[in-house]
Amino acid sequence: MQRWNWWIASLFLAASCQAAPADAPAQQFPFICRTQEAGLGQPIVDSFDATAHPVMDSASHQPFGYSRQCAITPRIVYFYYNGSAFKPFAPATDYAHPPADLRRARYGDTSVPFVVQVEVGTINRFFYTIAMLAPAPEPAPLAWNHKLFYWLRGGVGIGHQQGLPMWINGALSRSERELLPSVLEQGFAVLSSSGNETGVHYNMRLAGDTALKVKQHFIASHGQPRYTIAMGGSGGAVQQYLFAQNLPGLFDGGVPIQSFPDMITQTIPISDCPLLGQYFKDAVANDPASPWAHWSSQALVEGMNASDTVRNAQSGRPGTTECINGWRMAMPTVLNPLYRDHRFDLGAHAYGYRDGALDKVKWTHWNDLADIYGEDARGYAPIPLDNVGVQYGLAALAAGKLDADEFLRINACVGAWKEQPDFVAWQGAADPFDSANMLRGERCRWPDGRPAPRRAGDVGAMRRAYTSGQVFTGRRLDIPMIDLRPYLEATLDMHNARQSFATRARLRASDPAQAARQVIWFVRPEADLAPVALEALGVLDRYLAQHQPPPLFTDRCMDGQGATIAAGPAVWDGVLDQHPPGACTRAFPIFSSPRMVAGDSIRGDRFKCALKPVATALADGTYPAGVHFSAAQQAWLARIFPQGVCDYTQGDAGRPPSW
C-alpha cells in the first residue's frame, strides 16, 4: 500500500512541478497542512523530504510520506439554507425528499430550492472554494448569472500554515452567514481561498498569485464571467486595493470594508505606539500627577483617539487609547521573532512533526516574506522600521498644548526598537509594551542625560516593499471601489476612520483621475452592515453592467438605521482640503497618528523621512513663532537629533528613485 502511495506521489509531484510558473512565489517551510482539521483527510504524499508535512500511516502512526503541497483531491459537497445557516445536503436523496427546514431562493423570477454546490480543493497549497446555487440535481445547470463574487478575509497572520476553507464544517463567520445567502440568491458564483485570508499570511504577492489562479481555475471549469466584484473587510480590503494596483484585470470592482491602503505602511505608526505608551507609563510612575495620567491627554502625541472611560484591554480598568486597545498585539505579532501563537506547537505535535521543527522560524512579518526581503546570515529578514528624526508631539507643541521641556523629554526618551537578534521573548502583562526590546537612554528625562537612540530602517527592505507590491502607492486603481466603513472611533478600534482618506490622498497625489474611482461610505456602528454592503454590491453591479456610474456611486454617510445623512462630492470636505467641513465630516470626526502629529501627511506612506539640520529647522519655520527654545533647550534638541529632524516637504527617502 505504501509503495502505491509513493507511485501516486511521484506522479503528483511531476505534475505540480510542470504546472509551477517560473515566477511563482517561493514556497515556505515548515508549512503545516490543515486538511485533517478541515475534515478532508490527509494531504496527498508528494515528497521524501522530512521537513515537509508528515502523512501518517494509520496502523503504525509513523509517516509513510510527506506533503509539500498540502494538496487534496478536489471534491463537491452540498449545503442547503434554512434561513439562518447552511446545513449539509445529500443530493442523491434530498432533492427528491427535501429537508423540512429548507428555504426557497428567489432566483430571477423563479422560486427554487436554496441548495448550494461547493467545490473545495487546493491551489498554491491553500484551500479554495467555489460556491454556486444548485436548485436542481445534475445534469441540470447551476443557477449562475455569469458574474463572480470574490470574498476575501482579514486578520493578521505570519504564514507557515494552510488555513481552513470556507463552508466546510460550518466554517462561515457571522458576517458571511448574513451576507452570502443574498449574494448566492442573485446567482453570483462565490470564490474564496484561505490564501486570501490575511489571518493566514500577509504576503500580498503570494495572495495575488493565489487569487489569480483560483479565478483561472474557475474560468477553465465554468467559462468566462462578465465581471468579478470583490468584497472583504480589513485585510480583505487591503487585498482589493493592492490587487487593483498590482494585478489589473483580476477584479472589476470592489467593496473594501474597514479598509487600510495596505498593511506594510501601518507598521510605521503602530511601531510608535508601544514606544510612546512606555514613555507615558514611565512618566506616570515617576509622577502620579503627570498630565499623561489622563488617557485622553495621550492623544495629543499619539494622534489616535483616546478615552478616560473605555475599558483598557491590558489592565481591565477605565481609560485607554487606540494604540492600546486597537493595536496592542500588533507589534509582538509582527516584529518579535520569538513570539509565536501556541497553536503552531499544538498543530506540529498533533500532526507528527519532529521535535524542534519550528525552532528556526523567525516569527515576524518580514521573515514571513523572506522570499521578498531576503535574510542575513543568521536568518533574519531586514526590517524597514525607521524613526530617525521624527519629532513626536510637534503639532501639540505648535498648538501650545505641550511645553518645550516635555516635548524634548518625549523625544529624548521615546527611543526605538532593537535589532532582531537582540530581541527577547515578550513577557505579556509583566511588560505590556515590550520595553525589554526597546532602545532606552540613561537619565533621558534630563538635559544632561543620554538620549535614547533612534532606529534607522533598512532602505533595501523599504524599496523591496514597493517593488514587490506590498505598498499601495495610488498610481493605479482603474476599477470602481466603494470604501465602506462602520465608524468605530468611540470603541478605539484599530480600523480607524482616517484610513479611507489615506487611500484617497495617495490616489490624489499620484493621479486625481484614479481618485474619482473611489467613493467613501461611512455608517454608524449600530447599523446593520450586511444590507449596506449588499447595497454597495448592487451599485457596483449596475455600474459594471451599464458601463457608467449610477447616482449612488458617490460619497455618502449613513445613520444608525442605514438612512443617508448626506451624499455627494462635498460631504467629506475639510478632511483633505481647507474647505469648510462637509456634512459627513462634521458627523464623523477623523483622528490622526503619531507620525501625523510629528508633521507627516495623512497618506502615511513615508518609511523614512529626509533630514535637515536642527539649526535649519530652528530658522525655517518648523517651529511656529509662538514656540521659543532657550539656548539650553536648543542644545538639548541638537543632542536628541544629531542627524537632524524630519523634512516633510520631501518625499519618502525609502522609495525607489524611479517608482
Automatic annotation (TrEMBL):
Residues 1-19 form the signal peptide. The keyword Membrane does not apply. InterPro entries: AB_hydrolase_fold, DUF6351. Residues 26-654 form the DUF6351 domain. Keywords: Signal. It holds the Pfam family DUF6351. This is DUF6351 domain-containing protein. It comes from Rugamonas fusca.
